[in-house]
């Protein structure tokens, strides 16, 4: 349950940070394929979807609600990089949304990481929250974002 206060603070965060939230399942779902992990039913392959959306934004982050490292990432961007457009796809892992589980499995396959957040800067996977913090602390995040060909005109085609 999200309180009105947390919603208002999150909306204020979005206004300050020029962040965009991608909500809901992608409307242009990839073609179904037989999922070898589950002998019953079909799954979707989101690897191309992930590649397309991470290359189109200076910062693309796949987050999980109620995830403290995800909040730390958003806070860092809000405080130090309000001018950089950042895109978030926040997953809930609701059992009524099986596409989120498939997306999480494909994020694991694409990145080799099994924890949230999954952070992409200029289309390149950099790691999680501590990796983003290290880039910031060592002065590498700003130059990387400034040299990024994607300047924030990305509009997710979901």
UniProtKB/TrEMBL annotation:
Q: Which residues form the signal peptide?
A: 1-19
Write out the entry's keywords from A to Z: Signal
Whether Signal counts among this entry's keywords is yes
Superkingdom, natural source: Eukaryota
Protein name per the record: Glutaredoxin domain-containing protein
Q: Which organism is it from?
A: Mesorhabditis belari
Annotated ranges, domain Glutaredoxin: 59-126
Matching InterPro entries: Glutaredoxin (IPR002109), Glutaredoxin_subgr (IPR014025), Thioredoxin-like_sf (IPR036249)
Q: Can the keyword Signal be found in this entry's annotation?
A: yes
């Amino acid at each position: 349950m999200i309180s009105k206060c947390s919603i208002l603070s999150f909306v204020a965060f979005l206004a300050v940070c020029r962040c965009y939230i991608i909500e809901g399942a992608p409307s242009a779902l990839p073609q179904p394929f037989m999922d070898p992990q589950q002998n019953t039913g079909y799954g979707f392959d989101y690897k191309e979807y992930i590649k397309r959306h991470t290359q189109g934004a200076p910062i693309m982050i796949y987050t999980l609600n109620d995830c403290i490292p995800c909040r730390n990432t958003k806070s860092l961007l809000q405080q130090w990089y309000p001018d950089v457009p950042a895109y978030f796809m926040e997953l809930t892992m609701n059992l009524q949304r099986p596409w989120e589980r498939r997306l999480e499995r494909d994020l694991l396959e694409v990145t080799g990481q099994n924890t949230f957040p999954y952070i992409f800067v200029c289309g390149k996977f950099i790691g999680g929250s501590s990796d983003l913090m290290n880039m910031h602390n060592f002065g590498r995040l700003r130059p990387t974002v400034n040299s990024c060909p994607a300047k924030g005109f990305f509009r997710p085609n979901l």
